[in-house]
Amino acid sequence: MDDIIFGSTNDALCKDFERVMKLKFEMSSMGEMKFFLGLQVDQMPEGIFINQTKYVNDVLEKFSMTGTSLMSTPLALTHSIHLDPTGEKFDETLHWSMIGLFMYLTTSRPDIMYPTCLAARYQSSPRASHMMMARRILRYLKGCLTE
User: Fold this and answer.
1) Domain that residue 11 falls in
2) Calculated CA dihedral for residues 30, 52, 61, 71, nearest 10 degrees
3) Domains of the chain: total
4) Series of mean pLDDT values for 10-residue runs along the chain (147 residues)
5) For the chain, how far is it from start to end, CA to CA, in angstroms?
6) Beta-carbon neighbour count of residue 30 at 10 Å?
7) Strands 35-36 and 39-44
8) Which of 4, 18, 45, 61 sees the fewest Cβ atoms within 10 Å?
């Protein structure tokens, strides 16, 4: 099964294309696109807008961060993130999972790209300080869900 997305500024052309495709191929039409690969798609007269609000909420719930306080930035301006070889070791699998989820979020959230890449540097041996940074990113995302 393959998916196809098509669109036009002319509704009649869209309907004609859909009709031709249905004649040539066995297919169904889902109507106006609302979700695509985890992205929420809002089509308005002003333009097409994408967001990942539902995905962020799911991530916050997965890591039990729905009740946490908010952060205004994803990373402190004067952060001291470093290798931290003497710090308390943290679960690598959990850290990898968080980084992977953040990487996917950068599709619509370039504001977390730098802190995500910084956190990814320490995937081989994450420490408590690195996990605190990852949690800060989550707290920031919670504070700006609709941006």
Assistant:
1) 1-31
2) -160
3) 2
4) 82 94 91 88 91 93 95 93 92 95 94 96 94 96 86
5) 34
6) 10
7) antiparallel
8) 45
